[in-house]
Specification:
This protein is mainly beta and 173 residues long. The protein has one domain: Glucose Permease (Domain IIA) (Distorted Sandwich), CATH 2.70.70.10. It is built from three helices and 14 strands. The radius of gyration is 16 Å and the shape is globular.
Length: 173
């Protein structure tokens, strides 16, 4: 810890430890732990309609988001991350609805564009209270953006169940 952080306290949260992801070829894990939402009930019509691809949405218990697959970050914004997976799957993780308007306030990014991540690595932390205070739902969506490439793709978590970050959520093969 740096001197001024010790003296005045750090505003940056501690980087979370990686979670044990149940990753294997053809599997996308849950990016957060919490309650799985019915896709049609996501409070945004674009995500609810799965316009970007098959989606798993979770109301998070904590403000920590982890890589759902191993691969390379193709996009890294405070509220959204793209990952090109080692096995060809492309995933978008989107934190909250309309959180782009927060301009990164309340978000701490742990992984930068171009970085290699392993399933279970922390990629962003967010302040749930700040997201809610800004008037945004804090639901986290994990989307397979190239879903059409996987005709056998299936969501394997049950809606309204509870998942842990790193649990298997989507099977692409």
């Amino acid at each position: 810890m740096r001197f001024f952080d010790k003296l005045f306290g750090s505003k940056k949260p501690a980087k979370p430890e990686a979670v044990a992801a149940k990753a294997e070829r053809g599997v996308v894990c849950a990016a957060v732990g919490g309650r799985v939402e019915v896709t049609a009930d996501i409070p945004d019509p674009m995500f609810a309609g799965e316009m970007m691809g098959r989606t798993v949405a979770v109301w998070p218990e904590a403000g920590e988001v982890f890589a759902p697959i191993s691969g390379t970050l193709t996009a890294a914004m405070p509220h959204a991350f793209g990952i090109a997976g080692d096995d060809g799957v492309e995933v978008l993780i989107h934190v909250g609805v309309d959180t782009v308007s927060m301009n990164g306030e309340g978000f701490t990014v742990w992984a930068e564009k171009g970085a290699r991540v392993a399933a279970g690595d922390p990629i962003v932390s967010f302040d749930k209270a700040k997201v809610k205070a800004a008037g945004h739902p804090d639901i986290v969506m994990t989307i397979v953006t190239n879903s059409d490439d996987y005709p056998q793709l299936q969501v394997i978590v049950e809606t309204e169940s509870t998942v842990s970050a790193g649990d298997q959520a989507i099977r692409t093969a």
